Every structure is written in C-alpha cells, then in structure tokens.
Amino acid sequence: GALESGFTQSDVAYWAYNGTGLYDGKGKVEDLRLLATLYPETIHIVARKDANIKSVADLKGKR
C-alpha cells in the first residue's frame, strides 16, 4: 500500500479539519489523521542532517 504524509502545525491542521482559518470557504479536510505530536512548541525547524545546522544561529546566510 501507499501512505501520503507530511508535517503541519497544530493550528493549520485544526483549520483544515474544521474548514476554518486558512481553509474558510474551502471545505473541511475530514480524512485528516494525526500520527504524533513532535514537540509542544510554537515553531518547528527541520533541517537535513548533512546541512550541519545545530542551532537557529546556524541558519544565518542559509536559503
């Protein structure tokens, strides 16, 4: 079988599921499912391991 997955912020997932916020007027995404919560934080920053980014300061000059 196949699986389509991705990362999203909790508020955006909530809006999609309820058809509100950014999804207002676009309909509900009712087949949305949660696998796990990464961290109880406001923002997540994800980088490839080979990018050698260990802190927010390491992002300076990156694209």
Automatic annotation (TrEMBL):
Question: One Pfam annotation, family name?
Answer: NMT1_3
What Gene3D superfamilies does the annotation carry? Answer: Periplasmic binding protein-like II
* Coiled-coil annotated spans: none
Against PANTHER family, the record matches this protein to:
SLL1037 PROTEIN
Record protein name field = 31 kDa antigen
Q: Which organism is it from?
A: Brucella abortus
